[in-house]
Write a structure and sequence with these properties.
The complex is a heterodimer.
Chain A lengths: L1 H25 L5 E6 L6 E2 L1 H7 L14 E4 L5 H11 L3 H14 L6 E2 L3 H10 L3 E6 L7 E3 L1 E2 L13
Chain B lengths: L2 H20 L41 E16 L15 E16 L2 E10 L8 E2 L2 E2 L5 E4 L5 E4 L2 E14 L2 E9 L5 H4 L12 H4 L6 E12 L4 E10 L16 E12 L1 E23 L5 E24 L2 E14 L16 E12 L6 E11 L14 E14 L2 E13 L12 E11 L1
Antiparallel strand pairs in B: 1-2, 1-20, 2-3, 3-8, 4-5, 6-7, 8-9, 9-10, 10-11, 11-12, 12-13, 13-14, 14-15, 15-16, 16-17, 17-18, 18-19, 19-20
Classes of the chains: A alpha/beta, B mainly beta.
Amino acid sequence: MLGRRTFLQASAALLAAGLESELALAAPAYVLVPIVASSSPMRDISMGTLRRVFTSEQLSGPGGVRLVGFNQPSGSRARDLFDRVVLGLDPDQAARFWVDQRIRGLARPPRAVGSVALLRDVVNRYPGAVGYLATSDLDASVRALTVNGADADAPQYPLR
Amino acid sequence: MSRSRASRRLACRVGLSLLGWLGSVHAQSADPGASPEPTSLAELEGEPLSLTDPSAPALETLGGLALYGFADFGFYKLFMPKGSLLRTQLFGDSAFAVGNLNTYLSGELGGGWRSLMEIRFTYLPNGSRPITASGIERVSTAAQDYTNSGRVRNTGSIFIERAWIEYSASAALNLRGGSWLTPYGIWNEDHGSPTIIPVTRPYVIGLELLPERQTGLLLYGSFFASESVTLRYQVGLSNGRGPIQDYADLDENKAVTLRLQLHHHGAGDLDLGAAAYIGRYTDLDQLIRPNGNGVLGVEEQLLQRYDEASYALDARYVRGGLHLQTEFIMNEKAYADGGRPVRSATQFQPDDRRYGGYGLAGYRFDWLGIMPYLTGEYFSPINTFEPTRAATRDVFWDFGLGINSRPTTNVTLKLEGNLAVFDIENAKGSALEHPVLGVQAQVAWAF
């Protein structure tokens, strides 16, 4: 009896694992793209510049305009991926990082904007604003940047 | 609605949302340091501030005020002999205490201007124990509370930790004026109890071989040398150290501070820094006496004067949960003629070179954000603590073992044991003859 139950459980586990991997293959990859205003002359941004913008370092872009980062809300899939890939911090580490920066008297964290639509509005409104979106949230109102010269389809593209 | 009117309305809403953020008071949130995210433009319609297109300010000129801070509470016990002279400086008996209660007011003033004020509320000077010619005199701030039938309460005071305004021309050029923390090392910049890992600062830091803060001008900036390397500089000009350094310079000899720092982001974050401070300390007394014409005037009497130079090196490496940091600091002090204080009835204080450093190693685990850590400290001064002993070179060692936990973003729990041992000449009967053991527990929180 025990052997039969074990066999059934093992079979079910294998079936579930197979289904998950099939689904994973079928689902589109979750990829982020940095965005700026559609009127911005920027076309590309490096990982180093992204990290500096999103750690509130003072940085200027083309034409001397100051680059200011706008985050997605903490806890969102986009924010977690962005912080992990660009800042090298998991959500807890990122939260502690900003508490520590605040106590040191350093710059505040980039503003988190609560919706993708509002983020697009903000980025499109201000020439220095830099945000990031999942590729599925892109529309013509903002410009998607390449990262280190690679576009989102390239195999070496880092924001995935 | 015309297209231009619609775009004006959109711009107004976006501007409102930004001002709503920048103008809000920061509160604890999942995204520390930021107010809750606006989720729609409509929710900001009721904002009292208005912003009209096309006069909407640029991003960097949008301003706001943030109020936040940190505090800590702990239990402290030092094991040392009852009659030890160390008890004039340290409270040995077990006690609970609220340590720091610091509030920050940070303002983005627009046009590249920014200000920061940090105020610490303290029970001091009540209970402090300055040593005078007649012995130890404990300060009492007892006052009758007129709102409570004149019953006696002890009043406290405040420390102005920092108060500055700065103008930022670019990443490479920023000018700060006011009272600022001296840019050196790691500890002095980490500053707050939720951020620093152990419970108490190393002896070599607490001694202020470089002054903890200065009042004057600070020029600083960053250069992005490559994708992963940032170089930073800071140059300060200040009143330097003095008995009333926050608002007076009794010798008009300005102190100079220089700091250079390299940050590398790669396989972990590496910070390397070096700092130097050169200044003069002068303490004067003023005597009112008749001058040659029989008119009352002020005669200044030099009480103490020395020239000093301090140097500091620091390194920190953080990768994942691994945290390593170390600092080394040296201070050289040379007294001027007539400005050398007495050490005892027959001796003057010698010139001094004090140096020391500490190292800290810890690893933070994901579970409850727990970080076990080890510290080791070395410090060597000329003996000025006990006049009954010769002015020989003393050596202090301190070893610490502790746990730092950050179970939530804004709360830090610490438990630490320390052992201080001393290597001194003629130790018999000295306060430093025996090791000192300490047990400390602290909860620190950011708000």
